[in-house]
Amino acid sequence: MSVDIGGTFTDCVVVDENGDTTIAKSRSTPENNFKTGFFDSIEAAAVKRGIDAADLLENSVRVTHGSTVATNIMVEKSGADIALITTKGHEDTLDLTKGRGRIHSESPEHLLRIANVRKPDPLVEGRTSG
């Protein structure tokens, strides 16, 4: 079973051992940190399958959770202000780690050109020490 929380709707997809798929949807509930919408989508899937939500959860081998809401916050840069605090003397660790991103599993040819690879914008801009 997989549940994805979006800004308007929360979707639940259930695939059983035979490959039969059930798709259900409920309203997202930002007013309570999306909790009700999450469980309502599971309930809607259970109803479509003709079983109780508790039975659906109990018999699920895996439950995965995605959040389009969180992805949108990252893409739109509309989340809360954040800060990164490091131990004195280790301020550059994150910049230095893996060439500042994306070298894990890269071919040797790409590693030689890592400085030319476009890297994502940092989540925390600038530097203040004190």
Describe the fold and architecture.
The chain is an alpha+beta fold and 130 residues long. The chain has 5 helices and 4 strands; from the N terminus they run E-E-E-H-H-E-H-H-H. It has helices at 35-49, 53-58, 68-76, 93-96, 108-111; strands at 2-5, 9-15, 21-27, 64-67. It has a 4-stranded mixed sheet with strand order 3-2-1-4. The longest helix has 15 residues, at 35-49. It is elongated, with a radius of gyration of 21 Å. The relative contact order is 0.13. The model has no long low-confidence stretch (mean pLDDT 83).
The biggest sheet amounts to: 4 strands, mixed
Give the number of helices.
Answer: 5
Percent helix among the residues? 25-40%
Give the strand line-up of the largest sheet. 3-2-1-4
Secondary-structure-derived class? alpha+beta
Number of strands: 4
Mean pLDDT: 83
End-to-end Cα distance, whole Å, is 48 Å
Strand content: 15-25%
Uncertain segments of ≥5 residues (pLDDT<50)? none
In angstroms, what is the radius of gyration? 21 Å
Morphology call: elongated
The ordered string of helix (H) and strand (E) elements is EEEHHEHHH
Give a nutshell description of this structure.
By secondary structure, this protein is of the alpha+beta class. It contains 5 helices and 4 strands.
Helices and strands in order, then pairings?
Elements: E1 2-5, E2 9-15, E3 21-27, H1 35-49, H2 53-58, E4 64-67, H3 68-76, H4 93-96, H5 108-111
Parallel strand pairs: 1-4
Antiparallel strand pairs: 1-2, 2-3
Which characteristics define this entry?
130 residues, alpha+beta, four-stranded mixed β-sheet, 5 helices, 29% helix
